[in-house]
Specification:
- With 392 residues, the protein is an alpha/beta fold.
- It is 44% helix and 15% strand.
- It contains 15 helices and eleven strands.
- The chain has helices at residues 18-29, 45-55, 65-74, 86-94, 111-119, 129-144, 155-164, 197-200, 210-218, 220-232, 271-279, 310-321, 325-341, 349-361, 369-385; strands at 8-13, 34-40, 59-62, 81-84, 100-103, 123-126, 149-152, 172-179, 240-244, 250-256, 261-265.
- The strands form two sheets. A seven-stranded parallel β-sheet has the order 4-3-2-1-5-6-7, with helices on both faces. Strands 9-8-10-11 form a four-stranded mixed β-sheet, covered by helices on one side.
- Helix 6 packs parallel to helix 10, helix 13 packs antiparallel against helix 14 and helix 13 runs parallel beside helix 15 (369-385).
- It binds nicotinamide-adenine-dinucleotide and magnesium ion.
- Nicotinamide-adenine-dinucleotide is lined by residues 14-20, 41-42, 44, 63, 104-106, 109, 127-130, 154, 206, 208-209, 211-212, 270.
């Protein structure tokens, strides 16, 4: 049924990435319900130009000065304004007339824009989980002041959000985050030393950006999601559990006080949770793939292995420590993943570098936004320069 309401105006931060491009697929499906006012991209200027020409936003923000000049030339004569750099991302997140900011940047770079969007009372459709890992407490404080709204995009959090609709908060006993287990779920511990970049980039169920793909291989992704769930749903960590479910059909579950458990299921396709973040509380008819129940032989579950995947343990520990520990964990992980992709660090060294960074730098203060930015900068520098002793 077509709606007569004004379309929801979007600012899409990270429009050229995996989540960003799939968000634009949803806009193409619902042109009368969604409109694009702002698009931002990093270095993929060609794609950002194509997107700007197609959607005619009021503003595009690009990551580099060279990209800025190229876009100014390509978009001359169109109504689109061009800007570049980190400060412009804050303008993008607070642009006049925007209802919903789709936070699809990867990493800490998204933090200031997300905080600015909340302060400006926008709805944030949050994919950029690192921001909530670093500053979950500050985001909850903004929400408590009645500023802004956050709806999840991450498939696990979307599943939990969907299970919670209509439920009294005090009846929630446990959030159960499912994890695919990644490409190394069944790989023997003694061969982890030989894991290559190509193997780590080959995720069994999802096609995603490089950073989250490596995070899925180390299971840091699930660790980040545990921290994200703690703040997204304001639930203490002892009520959050992780269960490996290799088929990625159950996207997560909520167990209630009366012994009942709700789960949300679907074919692994990020367009479904992205669309729900934009349609909530409604559901829009869409041609996304359906589960073929007769084809679905079984659903398996197993305990995560914290010995082969220490990143998951490190994330639980950082959440328990609080203070700047999650910010240091996140920054060290971002650097470790980058160094692994540059073949400057082995796979098994990723958790070692993160653990050493947290031990060296984490502080148990109640951090402000400025403290978090400082903690991030220091941890990033430390993790970049630190050489691990080889343990062959
Ligand atoms: P991606 O690498 O595909 O895209 C990232 C986007 O951010 C791109 O548009 C890139 O140009 C932009 N960007 C990166 N660094 C930038 C910088 N310094 N300045 C300005 N722009 C910059 O990443 P993705 O896979 O789409 O993931 C985005 C976020 O969503 C991540 O936090 C990820 O954990 C989360 N997420 C992704 C998926 C998925 O399926 N891809 C699923 C769940 C959650
Ligand atoms: Mg996820």
């Amino acid at each position: 049924m077509p709606s007569n309401a004004t379309p929801t105006a979007l600012s899409i931060l990270g429009a050229t990435g995996s989540i960003g491009t799939q968000t634009l697929d949803i806009v193409r499906l619902f042109p009368d319900r969604l409109s694009v006012k702002v698009l931002t991209g990093g270095r993929n200027v060609d794609l950002l130009r194509e997107q700007a020409l197609e959607f005619q936003p009021e503003l595009v923000v690009v990551g580099t000065e060279a990209g800025y000049h190229a876009l100014c030339e390509a978009l001359a004569g169109t109504p689109t304004e061009v800007a570049w750099g980190d400060a412009a991302l804050v303008s993008a997140a607070t642009w006049a007339g925007v209802d919903t900011v789709v936070a699809a940047l990867v990493g800490f770079v998204g933090l200031q824009p997300v905080m600015a969007a909340l302060a400006a009372d926008r709805t944030v459709a949050l994919a950029n989980k690192e921001t909530m890992v670093v500053a979950g407490a500050l985001m909850r404080a903004e929400l408590a002041k009645g500023r802004g709204t956050i709806v999840p995009v991450d498939s696990e959090h979307s599943a939990i959000f969907q299970c919670l609709v209509g439920e009294p908060p005090e009846s929630v006993e446990q959030l159960i985050l499912t994890a695919s287990g990644g490409p190394f779920r069944t790989r023997p511990a003694e061969t982890f030393d030989q894991i290559t970049k190509a193997e780590a980039l080959n995720h069994p169920n999802w096609s995603m950006g490089a950073k989250i793909t490596i995070d899925s291989a180390t299971m840091m992704n699930k660790g980040l999601e545990v921290i994200e769930a703690r703040w997204m749903f304001d639930v203490p960590v002892d009520r959050i559990d992780v269960l490996v479910h290799p088929q990625s059909i159950i996207h997560s579950m909520v167990a209630f006080a009366d012994g009942s458990t709700k789960a949300q299921l679907g074919v692994p396709d990020m367009r479904v949770p992205i669309q729900y973040a934009l349609s909530y509380p409604d559901r829009w008819t869409a041609p996304h793939p359906r589960i073929d129940w007769r084809d679905l032989a079984c659903l398996d579950f197993e305990q995560p292995d914290l010995v082969r995947f220490p990143c998951l343990r490190l994330a639980f520990e950082a959440l328990a420590s609080g203070g700047t520990a999650p910010a240091v964990l996140n920054a060290a992980n971002e650097v470790a993943v980058q160094r692994f992709l540059e073949e400057d660090l082995r796979f098994v060294e990723i958790p070692r570098l993160i653990e050493a960074a947290v031990e060296a730098l984490a502080q148990s203060v109640q951090p402000s936004l400025v403290d978090l930015v400082e903690a991030d900068t220091a941890a990033r520098r430390w993790a970049q320069e630190h050489r691990l002793r080889t343990t062959h």
